[in-house]
Specification:
It comes from Xenopus tropicalis. Pfam families: RXYLT1_N. The chain crosses the membrane at residues 7-28. Keywords: Membrane, Transmembrane, Transmembrane helix. By secondary structure, the chain is of the alpha/beta class. It folds into 2 domains: 5-76, no CATH class; 109-239, Rossmann fold. The protein is built from 7 helices and 6 strands, in the order H-H-H-H-H-E-H-E-E-E-H-E-E. The protein has helices at residues 5-28, 36-50, 52-55, 64-68, 75-99, 118-127, 182-200, and strands at 109-115, 142-148, 151-157, 172-178, 206-212, 235-239. The protein has a 6-stranded mixed sheet, sandwiched between helices. Strand 4 (172-178), helix 7 (182-200) and strand 5 form a beta-alpha-beta unit. It is rod-shaped, with a radius of gyration of 48 Å.
């Protein structure tokens, strides 16, 4: 069917009338659509009404509960960011507390062990678990230190440890002696007299003796040096 110029004009006029009617309906009769941006703008206007300047003119007050009910499009994101910030701070504080060195424990007792028998090495290395330097067993002087709670323990041994030729570093001493043979007994007696001199000069307060005794229990030679007999020495005795 052939479209004439007159019919084309009629169709154009009809479409113009239809769009004009739709525009009039949208402007005057259709309810306006509220977007998220409108809600944010409305919320800001309500905050202005609650401000002192907004209330000077005697306008109506809007309750705080109504303001809190207004939807905030960024509320969830702000809350998540705040929670993440708090978690990071707590984790950082815990790491600081974990890496912070604990204050050193106050030393309540210091004990020095003098090893003049092979059993002294067993006492120090295997029972107390202390280190020993140098590791060379033929060294003339060997020593070590450990700390057990508030007690400082030190150990010295070797041929260079001779009465009167080393420094006494503690008022509490454990003396390890060998009393299995006559030669060892005479050597042990020299050490007992040396410790008696230190106690009399107030360089020692407490003395304990660890003795490797005779297999037949012939250890009566130590009796004169025990605490009951030698009261001013203040020594105790352990026979092995």
């Amino acid at each position: 069917m052939r479209i004439t110029y007159k019919r084309f004009c009629y169709v154009a006029i009809f479409l113009y009338c239809v769009f004009s009617c739709y525009a009039l309906y949208s402007v005057f009769f259709r309810a306006p659509k509220v977007t998220h941006v409108h809600k944010v703008v409305k919320s800001s206007q309500l905050h202005r009404l609650l401000s002192p300047r907004g209330n000077q003119g005697g306008g109506s007050r809007v309750s705080a509960n109504k303001i809190e009910d207004e939807w905030n499009p960024w509320e969830e994101d702000e809350k998540s960011a705040q929670d993440l910030h708090v978690k990071i701070i707590e984790k950082y504080q815990k790491s600081l507390q974990k890496n912070q060195p604990s204050p050193p424990t106050k030393t309540e007792l210091s004990v020095q062990i003098w090893g003049k028998a092979a059993i002294g090495l067993y006492l120090w290395q295997h029972i107390l678990g202390g280190p020993l330097e140098p590791v060379d067993v033929t060294a003339p002087w060997r020593e070590g230190k450990i700390r057990e709670g508030s007690i400082d323990l030190s150990f010295i041994t070797g041929p260079a440890v001779v009465p009167g030729y080393f420094s006494v570093e503690s008022e509490n001493v454990v003396l390890v002696l060998n009393g299995r043979e006559e030669a060892k007994i005479s050597f042990a007696v020299q050490w007992l007299y040396y410790t008696k001199t230190l106690i009399e000069s107030h360089k020692l307060k407490h003395l304990a003796v660890v003795l490797l005794g005779n297999e037949q229990c012939n250890n009566d030679w130590i009796r004169p040096y025990l605490k009951k007999k030698w009261r001013d020495c203040g020594s105790s005795f352990c026979c092995l």
